[in-house]
Design brief:
Blueprint: H1 3-6, E1 10-13, H2 18-29, E2 34-38, H3 52-57, E3 60-63, H4 71-78, E4 83-86, H5 96-106, E5 111-113, H6 135-146, E6 152-155, E7 158-159, E8 179-183, E9 189-193, H7 195-205, E10 214-217, E11 224-226, H8 227-238, E12 243-247, H9 249-258, H10 263-274, H11 290-293, H12 302-307
Parallel strand pairs: 1-2, 1-4, 2-3, 4-5, 6-10, 7-9, 8-12
Antiparallel strand pairs: 9-11
């Protein structure tokens, strides 16, 4: 049996997204025969632009309509693989329901990694103000467990491309160079992980019995920062002291109440991470932390990321 034949066959759902594309590339780099589930409208785009990098990397492209409309094609795709990884956006989280049904019916999938990522919604302290954002994921998680689907949940907290490019300054496209807003006391820590690194850690789990039916948290030591620490790091890199504007928790809550969407959600997530501490307030076992389980995986640090913005 060849080495490739011995490796798990992986299906990535949501492969045209940035995280999904990273998952495809990481799976292929690890030697897994990898399938990318693609909806038909991508084939109609000029030169099928989103598909070319996936095919060129070696992925097998599978065309499937929206799962609710094409269950049998979805089932056929699932029957070809051992592992299913889903990376659809949270707004489409409930579309995983027919996928779970197909996994259950196929009976061949040894592990399902759902579109969790982000923050562990079982730990967040803002569920009364998230406008239903986390309930979709909670519903999918309940379904996975009620159907006894073998799974791994992966939580990376913030992807680096979210909020970090502005130094957690909503409305800005780049880090500030004159004044900066500090939300709350500024000492509560949040976590950022680059999506290519999320993909590498995710792929590490798929044949690891230690993570089966478990939760994996990504808390790289070089990526856990408070707002005060982020600002200090940035000031060092640009060799300039910024004017600090402090927004109290009370004022932030008022701002959230009055803000329009999507700014409202940005402020809610900032409140969750950097005031309530939803990324870091709870302890985790070293056996459930990605960099401890897979110390050989190299990851981009916050400092390295900010170097690209100087």
């Amino acid at each position: 049996m060849s080495e490739e034949a011995a490796r798990s066959r992986v299906l990535v759902v949501g492969a045209t997204g940035r995280l999904g594309g990273s998952l495809v590339r990481a799976s292929l780099a690890a030697g897994h025969p990898t399938f990318a589930l693609i909806r038909p409208h991508y084939f109609a785009l000029p030169d099928s632009a989103p598909l070319k990098p996936l095919a060129a990397a070696g992925a097998t492209i599978l065309k499937v309509n929206a799962p609710l409309d094409d269950y049998w094609s979805l089932l056929e795709a699932v029957r070809q693989v051992d592992v299913v990884i889903c990376a659809v956006p949270t707004k489409h989280a409930l579309e995983q329901k027919p996928l779970i049904r197909a996994i259950k019916e196929a009976g061949c999938v040894k592990r399902f990694i759902p579109a969790e990522f982000g923050v562990d919604h079982t730990k967040v302290q803002i569920c009364d103000m998230d406008h239903g954002f986390y309930e979709k994921k909670a519903e999918i998680r309940r379904l996975i467990e009620s159907e006894d689907i073998p799974h791994t949940y992966i939580y990376c907290n913030f992807l680096m491309r979210y909020l970090l490019p502005s130094l957690v300054q909503p409305g800005l496209d780049a880090p500030p160079r004159d004044e900066v807003t500090i939300f709350g006391g500024g000492d509560t820590k949040g976590i950022f992980v680059e999506e290519g690194d999320v993909a590498k850690f995710t792929v590490c789990t798929i044949e690891d019995p230690r993570t089966l039916n478990m939760t994996l948290y990504l808390r790289p030591l070089g990526n856990i920062y408070s707002l005060n620490e982020l600002v200090s790091l940035w000031e060092t890199k640009i060799n300039k002291c910024l004017k600090k504007i402090h927004i109290t928790e009370e004022q932030l809550l008022k701002n959230i109440q009055n803000a329009p969407f999507p700014l409202k959600m940005d402020l809610i997530f900032i409140y969750s991470a950097f005031v309530k501490g939803d990324h870091t307030y709870f302890e985790i076992d070293s056996r459930s932390e990605g960099t401890q389980l897979y110390p050989d995986v190299k990851y981009t640090t916050v400092s390295e990321y900010l170097d690209t913005l100087v």
